Amino acid sequence: MKAKNLKLLLTAGIGSVHIDLHAAASAGLTVAEVTGSNVVSVAEDELMRILILMRNFVPGYNQVINGEWNIAGISYRAHDLQGKTIGTMGGGRIGKLLLQRLKPFECNLLYHDRLQMEQAVEKEIGAKYFENLKEMLPKCDVIVINTPLTEKTRGMFNKEKKGVLIVNNARATIMERQAVVEATENGHIGVYSGDVWDPQPAAKDHSWRYMPNHAMTPHISGTTMDAQVRYAAGTKDMLERYFKGEDFPAQNYIVKNGEIAPQYL
Ligand SMILES: NC(=O)C1=CN([C@@H]2O[C@H](COP(=O)(O)OP(=O)(O)OC[C@H]3O[C@@H](n4cnc5c(N)ncnc54)[C@H](O)[C@@H]3O)[C@@H](O)[C@H]2O)C=CC1
After folding, report:
1. Which residues form the D-isomer specific 2-hydroxyacid dehydrogenase catalytic domain (predicted)?
2. Could you confirm whether 214 is annotated as catalytic?
3. pLDDT value at position 265?
4. Domain edges within the chain
5. Is 217 helix (H, G, I), strand (E, B) or coil?
6. pLDDT attached to residue 156
């Protein structure tokens, strides 16, 4: 390690996979993030993407830009959200909030996670738990990815319904890059809307820029002005606590005393 005096690594936001957490743990470093800081921002963004994909919005917008007018060319792939089945892989902070935000749309809500929510919360949201991801995937019209990238979540997909809409604001390598390109080309994925890329920033010739049926963005879902205020304040708070010798809020620790937080294992 080159930085011999390094003690602390802070992520101003959520998602610390840019850090080698195992190396940090064995070097005795502390890694922390501003847990919760952009949960609302990402969940709202996912809701927006679900609606945009379901209504075939982007091709409609492109018609206007290109001077075209072809209603039938849009509507044959536009559907109501009501009655559709939406599944989130990951029912943590973002996944749970997304399900709560989706409830008034009268969809069938499913989720897969390592951990089942408390029964009262699950009942209030009206979401059905699947311990086995492979059982949930074929049921979904829309799949949203809300787990961190770990060795277990990398490349987890292959059982989706034909024409499925996929929203991935979590991490790009949870999907296999070439498989996404091929599936958008052959229609197995109806539309893929991702906010995250591998690597970032994405090169000009990255294949996901040019595949058909996508609605990609450059990692913006968690970076609203409101989120920036929250994660700047959270980072400042942790720095102040660090220099006073105080602990951080417990949920912010990703690596502490050689241990990696369970959600990253
Ligand atoms: N695009 C963006 O700007 C942002 C993206 N994110 C991404 O979203 C992810 C989720 O964020 P939060 O909901 O706040 O995290 P969280 O820690 O509250 O929830 C993650 C959930 O994933 C589950 N999980 C972990 N590994 C799993 C596995 N192998 N199988 C099934 N479930 C598993 C955990 O049990 C937990 O419930 C982050 O790790 C990050 O990658 C987060 C914030 C901003």
Report:
1. 2-247
2. no
3. 83
4. 8-37+224-264, 39-216
5. coil
6. 73
Secondary-structure class of domain 8-37+224-264 per CATH = alpha beta
Is 22 assigned a catalytic role?
Answer: no
Fold match flag (8-37+224-264 vs 39-216): yes
Q: What is the pLDDT of residues 162-197, one digit of tens each?
A: 999 999 999 999 999 999 999 999 999 999 999 999
Classified as helix, coil or strand, 53 is helix
Number of H helices, E strands in the chain: 10, 10
- Using 70 as the pLDDT threshold, list the residues of the chain that sit under it: 1, 157-159
Task: Considering the candidates 219, 228, 241, 263, report the single residue annotated as catalytic.
Answer: 219
Tell me, what's the pLDDT at 1? 66
Looking at residue 196, what is its pLDDT?
97
- DSSP characters over 118-187: PHHHHHHHTEEEES-HHHHGGG-SEEEE-S---TTTTT----PPTTEEEEE-S-GGGS-HHHHHHHHHHT
| Spatial separation of the C-alpha atoms in residues 246 and 151, rounded to whole Å | 32
| Opening angle at CA 179, ends 175 and 182, nearest 5 | 140
For ligand 1, the distance from its centroid to the CA atom of residue 170, given in whole angstroms, is 7
* Whole-number pLDDT of residue 158: 67
Architecture of domain 39-216: 3-Layer(aba) Sandwich (3.40)
- ipTM comes to 0.98
* Residues in the ligand 1 pocket, defined by CB under 6 Å: 13-15, 38-39, 42, 90-95, 113-115, 146-148, 150, 152-153, 169-171, 195-196, 219, 221-222, 263
- Atom 24 of ligand 1, nearest CA residue: 147
pTM of the entire predicted model:
0.94
Indicate if 38 belongs to the active site.
yes
Task: Mark whether 263 is an active-site residue.
Answer: no
